[in-house]
Amino acid sequence: MRWQFVYLMLVLFFHARHTITAFQQDDSWDYILFVQHWPITVCMKWMDNSSNNSCTISPNYQWTVHGSWPTKIGTDGPQYCNSSWHFNMTEIESIEGELEQYWTNVEANTPLSSFWEYEWRKHGTCALNLEPLEGEFNYFNQAIAWTKNFSIGDILSAHGIHPDGSGYSIQQIHDAIQSTLGVNPVIECEVHGKPKMSLLSEIRLCFNKSLNLIDCDIDKMHYLFLDEYLYDLEDGQILTDCSLKRPIMYFGQIPHFENTIKDEELEERQQFLTQLRKIYQFLHLLIWLT
Ligand SMILES: *[C@@H]1O[C@H](CO)[C@@H](O)[C@H](O)[C@H]1NC(C)=O
Ligand SMILES: *[C@@H]1O[C@H](CO)[C@@H](O)[C@H](O)[C@H]1NC(C)=O
Ligand SMILES: *[C@@H]1O[C@H](CO)[C@@H](O)[C@H](O)[C@H]1NC(C)=O
Ligand SMILES: *[C@@H]1O[C@H](CO)[C@@H](O)[C@H](O)[C@H]1NC(C)=O
Ligand SMILES: *[C@@H]1O[C@H](CO)[C@@H](O)[C@H](O)[C@H]1NC(C)=O
Ligand SMILES: *[C@@H]1O[C@H](CO)[C@@H](O)[C@H](O)[C@H]1NC(C)=O
């Protein structure tokens, strides 16, 4: 009887220990992935998602912050490190104007601060053990400093890459960033429309814990190449999920031809309905006659 009891206690103890370990999250990280995105592309994808979605794009829009992500080598985490560290708008009130300009929420039909709150909960609460990034104010303020200092729009236009609706090669975009900053970025695209287009979407830069720019490289980010990130050119120095076959489109405004396509579709549908109505009326007449 007693032995059975001891055995049961031992089993319970090890089981509990195992469960606790399994739930303990490793929140350590090695470098920061600092992500800037192009509002026109963000808007096009947002509007693709639902006909109810609309965008806020300021008249003098530029590349803006998507997020600042503490990252452990070989993973895309940690994430959501402290659910009780609530987002508090008051903490960043003094830089709200700058956030609106440099960390813009393009999604017009969502609350202004929802984008900041999301990034804070998912990534900001993980930026621990590094004083210049710790806490809401530091976390957001550092990203604003970076986006001002490493202006993607200026870098690209200095290399003849303008948001004029033309297509560029991944090599051109990579070389512009690499030759200016001296480090490898990650270049991200979104796929849009029929036939499929590649839209330039994000430029990601890597910073080490001294907040110096460092190369983003495959060894740090090998997870990138597990599924959709299949493309690495020649020596593997270009980290991207963009198409290597299609030109990479860099639009300066929402392209107008989309509306034209929609109007045409609408017209076709209208004609189809008119024909249906005629057939219906004809059948009705037949029934009435017989
Ligand atoms: C699009 O909508 C789906 C479902 O509502 C959502 O899960 C997804 O995150 C949305 N994507 C974007 C880019 O907003
Ligand atoms: C758009 O909003 C209307 C009204 O709120 C809703 O009934 C409809 O389902 C929405 N459409 C989409 C595609 O989300
Ligand atoms: C989570 O955040 C709360 C609020 O800032 C803080 O009191 C708590 O110590 C944090 N927990 C951990 C594990 O860091
Ligand atoms: C939000 O931050 C302000 C300024 O730091 C502070 O006074 C206030 O107590 C905080 N509110 C909450 C709910 O934590
Ligand atoms: C701004 O960028 C330059 C190089 O482009 C770098 O030398 C400088 O340290 C950066 N400043 C900050 C605050 O990141
Ligand atoms: C960050 O990178 C700089 C420049 O390469 C280097 O001097 C510094 O030692 C690095 N810091 C850390 C913590 O790795």
TrEMBL record:
Its main location: endoplasmic reticulum. One of its GO terms (cellular component) is lysosome. This is Uncharacterized protein. The active site is at residues 66, 119, 123. It comes from the Eukaryota. PANTHER family: RIBONUCLEASE T2 (PTHR11240:SF22). Belongs to the RNase T2 family. Pfam families: Ribonuclease_T2. It catalyses: an adenylyl-uridine-RNA = a 3'-end 2',3'-cyclophospho-AMP-RNA + a 5'-end dephospho-uridine-RNA; a guanylyl-uridine-RNA = a 3'-end 2',3'-cyclophospho-GMP-RNA + a 5'-end dephospho-uridine-RNA. GO terms for biological process: RNA catabolic process. One of its GO terms (molecular function) is RNA binding.
